[in-house]
Design a protein that fits this description.
The chain has helices spanning 27-30, 35-48, 80-88, 103-110, 117-128, 169-183, 201-214, 216-219, 239-243, 249-261, 267-291, 309-312, 322-334, 339-352, 357-367, 376-384, 401-407, 428-444, 451-459, 463-472; strands spanning 2-3, 19-24, 54-59, 73-75, 92-94, 132-133, 136-137. By secondary structure, it is mainly alpha-helical. The radius of gyration is 23 Å and the shape is globular. Helix content is 46%, strand content 5%. The strands form two sheets. A five-stranded parallel sheet has the order 3-2-1-4-5, covered by helices on one side. The structure holds flavin-adenine dinucleotide and iron/sulfur cluster.
């Protein structure tokens, strides 16, 4: 009998024959999860169990699987704890699925090389013959980033809304389970639905069709923009079904390629989207295994501040900074915020304020509906917090209010001024940036990519006052 892990729910994980699918409630007792994340997981499990070959087994703990007779095989799970479990059960393991590249593909890319997303991505495109014109990239270029950096449009983006599921009886049943868990003392984060994300294979296909048909074409130009009128812009919202294993990412990338070939979507959007899936998604997965467990306890910048309550408990009403309160509100309301809100608002803030990397990593896993242990370390410990000292990215993704002002429409409605670093209305991102640079300047010396910001820092006459002001700041 095949043991199915909860992120292996699509037919591409089916080895044929009987399947055991555990539903383990203790996962919700360890740390508070977003309620909508718990909802999506339970809905997806119970929906998969409608297949006659699948037995859904309710367990208190994964360790109880040792008492189940007849388990013989599984597909290699995506995380270290689940791999140890599968090994302790003596299961025959077949190769990881649910990504666009295998362990062998990663080996052949990474052996003896300096790791770089761009090289991995190009190698993957060639290997998969994806968006290629013979030996050359389609359209003559590997990268269309320059076309994909538009700020939000004056009018709301003219794109059809994202695909939204029709809730059914199973949603009601899941809500009853979650209510019962709450009554028994389990604490969840955020607010309840309505459900926004696909959580069955059928729904995932519908969501993919909808995105390819109606939204992909505008994905690229506005992928880095933030718009307070529009929480999803032209993003796909497909990370949830992909991370639950309901959609095969190779199929997603091929569908995007076909949309370009059929003239339904511009190349810059299709390339940008495929880069996220075949490039970034696989890259961070392989780095999870490559970097190992110790990576998650790295803390190069000695960041030791605890997460503030407004962040850990999702309380946007306690914030005045418009960009920050909007991002936290999105997480509270949907368990989701798009990439630039994660990286350049929530992440940038956490970096500048020196929040503890492990706590921040765990918060992202628990508060986001698509959070998984494999996706977070490279994204949070590495890319966002620079806690790995540069193994993942060559310089910290720190930015002041000018970046947020350029890429969003928040600042006009904010009591702070993105140009100011001193005074009552000094922008916490602008002042926070200089205070962060000041605090960590010794660590950045010798980093070629930090030489310009460091020389700008040396020219600031008020840096001591800015740093003192930011150390004393107790609200944002
Ligand atoms: C601090 C931080 C935390 C993040 N947390 C998560 C997370 O919990 N789960 C998650 O799947 N992604 C995470 N990402 C990556 C990315 O932000 C999300 O995948 C994306 O916002 C999900 O929304 P979407 O499906 O609409 O993505 P789109 O914008 O439509 O992008 C398409 C797909 O590309 C993939 N992708 C893009 N960038 C990345 C990346 N850096 N790492 C992995 N996959 C990527 C995702 O599968 C995504 O669905 C995080 C990034 C940062 C900087
Ligand atoms: S002024 Fe600063 S805090 Fe306010 S929205 Fe702009 S960047 Fe954010």
């Amino acid at each position: 009998m095949q043991l199915l892990f909860p992120d292996q729910l699509g037919s591409h994980f089916d080895l044929g024959g009987e399947i055991l699918l555990p539903e383990v409630m203790s996962q919700f007792q360890k740390r508070p999860y977003h309620r909508q994340k718990a909802h999506l997981i339970l809905y997806a499990l119970r929906s998969r169990a409608k297949d006659d070959r699948v037995t859904l087994l309710s367990l208190d703990n994964y360790r109880d699987l040792a008492k189940v007779a007849g388990l013989s095989r599984a597909i290699k799970p995506s995380t270290r704890p689940m791999l140890s479990l599968a090994q302790s059960l003596g299961l025959e393991l077949s190769q990881t699925r649910g990504f666009c590249s295998s362990e062998a593909d990663w080996e052949s890319y990474s052996a003896g090389k300096k790791l770089k997303l761009e090289d991995f991505y190009r190698q993957s495109r060639k290997r998969l013959n994806l968006l290629m014109d013979g030996e050359h990239p389609a359209g003559g270029s590997w990268n269309f980033d320059a076309e994909n950096r538009l700020p939000p449009p004056k009018e709301k983006l003219g794109v059809q809304g994202h695909w939204v599921p029709q809730e059914d009886d199973l949603d009601e049943e899941v809500r009853e389970t979650l209510d019962a868990l709450e009554r028994s003392g389990v604490r969840f984060l955020g607010v309840d639905g309505p459900r926004q994300f696909a959580a069955s294979e059928k729904e995932a296909q519908e969501a993919l069709d909808h995105f390819i048909e109606h939204r992909l074409d505008l994905f690229g130009p506005y992928e880095d923009a933030m718009d307070q009128r529009d929480w999803t812009m032209a993003h796909s919202l497909l990370s949830v079904p992909m991370n639950l294993g309901l959609l095969d990412p190779i199929e997603v990338a091929r569908r995007a390629e076909r949309a370009y070939q059929q003239g339904k979507a511009r190349l810059s959007s299709v390339e940008g989207f495929i880069r996220q899936i075949v490039g970034w998604r696989d890259y961070v997965f392989h780095l999870y295994w490559q970097f190992g467990e110790e990576y998650e306890s790295q803390n190069h910048l000695a960041a030791d501040q605890p997460l503030p309550e407004w962040l850990s408990d999702l309380q946007p009403e306690k914030l005045s900074a418009k960009c920050l309160s909007d991002a936290v509100a999105n997480v509270r309301d949907y368990g989701w915020a798009h990439h630039i809100q994660r990286l350049m608002v929530l992440g940038n803030h956490s970096l500048q304020r020196g929040y503890d990397p492990k706590q921040t990593n765990d918060w992202f896993i628990d508060a986001f509906v698509d959070g998984t242990p494999w996706v977070m370390p490279a994204n949070v410990i590495g890319m966002t917090l620079y806690a790995d000292g540069g193994a993942m990215s060559t310089k910290p993704y720190a930015a002041g209010g000018a970046y947020i002002n350029r890429m969003s429409n928040y600042c006009g409605d904010c009591p702070f001024d993105p140009k100011k670093r001193l005074g009552e209305d000094a922008c916490p991102f602008t002042a926070g940036y200089w205070s962060f640079m000041d605090k960590n300047q010794e660590k950045f010396k010798g980093n070629f990519r930090m030489s310009n910001p460091l020389s700008s820092l040396r020219r600031l006459s008020d840096v001591l006052e800015v740093s003192a002001q930011e150390r004393a700041r107790d609200s944002f």
